[in-house]
Amino acid sequence: MKILLKLISLVGLITTIAPPVFFFLEKMEMDSMKFWMGIGMVAWMVTAPFWINKKQEDGRPQVGVK
Q1: Sequence-distant (≥ 6) Cβ neighbours of residue 22 within 8 angstroms
Q2: Where are the domains of the chain?
Q3: pTM for this model (two decimals)
């Protein structure tokens, strides 16, 4: 489940970053850019809190992967 949340978060970030680049390159209209950035923002905001800074069961924050 955590991997799926990370994947959706990554897609959300890409969907937030790519539209302004396309708009700058004149490949996308302003309304489309705003729409896709909004979708990306919502995807990031909904999924990221579930996996960023998760604490271990004993209450300590996770430190790297061992």
Answers
A1: 28, 33
A2: 12-47
A3: 0.73
CB of 28 closer than 8 Å to CB of 22: yes
CA distance 59 to 54: 9
* Best CA proximity match to 12, nearest among 43, 50, 45: 43
**pLDDT, position 53:** 72
User: Is-contact 37 31, C-beta < 8 A?
Assistant: no
The residue count for the chain = 66
Please classify residue 23 by burial: count the beta carbons closer than 10 Å to its beta carbon, then call 0-12 exposed, 13-18 middle and 19+ buried.
middle
The SS3 of residue 6 is helix
Taking only the tens place, the pLDDT of each residue in 39-61 is 999 999 999 988 887 666 666 66
**Encoding tokens for residue 26?**
């004149």
